[in-house]
Amino acid sequence: KNEVEQSPQNLTAQEGEFITINCSYSVGISALHWLQQHPGGGIVSLFMLSSGKKKHGRLIATINIQEKHSSLHITASHPRDSAVYICAASGGGADGLTFGKGTHLIIQP
Amino acid sequence: ETGVTQTPRHLVMGMTNKKSLKCEQHLGHNAMYWYKQSAKKPLELMFVYNFKEQTENNSVPSRFSPECPNSSHLFLHLHTLQPEDSALYLCASSWDRVGEQYFGPGTRLTVT
Description:
The structure holds two protein chains of two kinds.
Chain A: E1 4-7, E2 10-14, E3 19-25, E4 31-37, E5 43-49, E6 52-56, E7 59-64, E8 69-74, E9 83-91, E10 94-99, E11 103-108
Parallel strand pairs in A: 2-11
Antiparallel strand pairs in A: 1-3, 3-8, 4-5, 4-9, 6-7, 7-8, 9-10, 9-11
Chain B: E1 4-7, E2 10-13, E3 18-25, E4 31-37, E5 44-50, E6 53-57, E7 64-70, E8 73-79, E9 87-94, E10 102-103, E11 107-111
């Protein structure tokens, strides 16, 4: 069974700061997912990646398959980025996603 | 709007009640999922359906009974639940079993 570890669990930063959230997993996967959850519960998929790097606006996700590690970066952070960011792995011998505990991010103005 | 809808959004039920949660996706996806999010715990997979066939049951108690009549609809039938089953229940869908998942808004369930 895959284990997904995420750090930090909580992060408070000032507007404009560069944010990094880390994720590691224990077994081979088909893809690594980064999700965003706002208060109220709705979850949005930000990235799904199996190699290299993806960029969408101010968000960048990278993955190192050999090291079983992924990072989510937010450049020029803004208070509207405040949310819970969740790392999840798919594949690894099972259907569905295995989730990390999430990172609660607060960006202060 | 992700293309995945869930009803009801909120549900309060007693331990002897029977209720059902409904999920519908308008994306033409072939795989659908039920996830549970309890307070202070990570999201956890409950069930996976692919082309209407159940492919994963993550050791879920039998008081939760899923049903997938077609690739667009997924139900979770609930009976004789316990207070510890109170949680946010999320439905998701994807094109295939390893694709990007689209989540519904969730049903906030409280068992009294």
